[in-house]
Design goal:
about 300 residues, Rossmann fold, about 35% helix, alpha/beta, 2 domains
Length: about 300
């Protein structure tokens, strides 16, 4: 009997998958030849019922509810995808792996960075204009379990440990309360170096000296632009950053006095070494290798 693969997706993406409009699932069907692929809308009820369905499961950006399930999501840059046992980035296999730039081929890494630079957000040249870019995420008052401190505390800690101006942005998909906006306004009033910017994030990323954030994807994009990062939360891309959860605030900022990391080697290691390239000719083989490494009988 053929194995079944149940794939749980947002409704609008499920419709495209059923219509054969998602290359990822074409490659998946090739990689799992003979398997029956079934597409489901990802709802709380569907997740609760999924262990009752025979076969294997893929959940888009969610923790799988049983051992036959995996989480999958787009990586930081298209066309790379990640397949993992858990849904949170800081629990991915790459987060616990050790990075060694000596094992990365220099020329392919440089070629990859050249391609990635064409995908950077914003426009204009990359420069250093003497400020820190701080992309804020959500729940500014909260100190969540994967964070070293709340986002508001992160702002004051950064101002205390680095003399440069800080230009922060709000996340376009987050909803901020009156209390959060008032707290930001009070920080602006107390600290002339802190400014909540209306400039687009892509431009700030290209112009800044440094990215400081909890674990925003813009820190990874900054690596493509040759920008160092300080991370205040757990992340899968912490290896070449100053990490507050790993080393503390003072040590994280002190790391900026060390020679810059090999950005090209790191980007190649993460994307080529730990993701599946859906634009590659051997994408089905990469998928089989990754799913086999995660314990599936492929």
């Amino acid at each position: 009997m053929a194995q079944k693969l149940h794939i749980y997706l947002p409704e609008e993406w499920r419709e495209k998958a059923l219509a054969g409009q998602v290359r990822l699932f074409d490659h998946l069907a090739t990689a799992l030849a003979g398997w029956q692929l079934r597409f489901h809308t990802k709802t709380p009820q569907a997740r609760w019922l999924s262990p009752l369905r025979p076969g294997y499961k893929l959940f888009h950006k969610s923790d799988p509810p049983d051992r036959r399930g995996l989480s999958f999501r787009a990586a930081y840059f298209y066309p790379f995808w990640q397949f993992e046992r858990r849904g949170h980035r800081w629990e991915f296999d790459v987060a616990r792996a050790s990075f060694d730039p000596a094992h990365v081929p220099a020329r392919p890494a440089a070629q990859l960075v050249t391609r990635l630079q064409q995908k950077l957000p914003g426009s204009g040249p990359v420069s250093e204009q003497g400020f820190i870019f701080m992309p804020l995420q959500g729940r500014l008052h909260s100190h969540r379990s994967f964070q070293s401190m709340s986002p508001l505390q992160m702002i004051t800690a950064t101002l205390a440990h680095d003399p440069r101006p800080v230009r922060a942005t709000l996340h376009p998909l987050e909803s901020y309360s009156h209390s959060e906006r008032r707290a930001l306004a009070e920080l602006e009033a107390r600290h002339p170096r802190f400014h909540l910017s209306q400039t687009d994030s892509g431009s700030l990323l290209r112009q800044c000296d440094l990215v400081v954030t909890q674990n925003s994807a813009l820190a990874f994009a900054g690596y493509v632009a040759g920008k160092r990062a300080i991370l205040f939360a757990q992340s899968d891309c912490h290896h070449i950053a100053g990490s507050v959860p790993r080393n503390g605030v003072s040590a994280a900022f002190a790391s900026l006095h060390q020679p810059p990391p090999d950005f090209a080697a790191y980007l190649f290691w993460v994307l080529r070494g730990n993701c599946v390239d859906m634009a590659a000719k051997d994408a089905p083989a990469q998928l089989r290798a990754r799913l086999s490494a995660l314990g599936w009988p492929v």
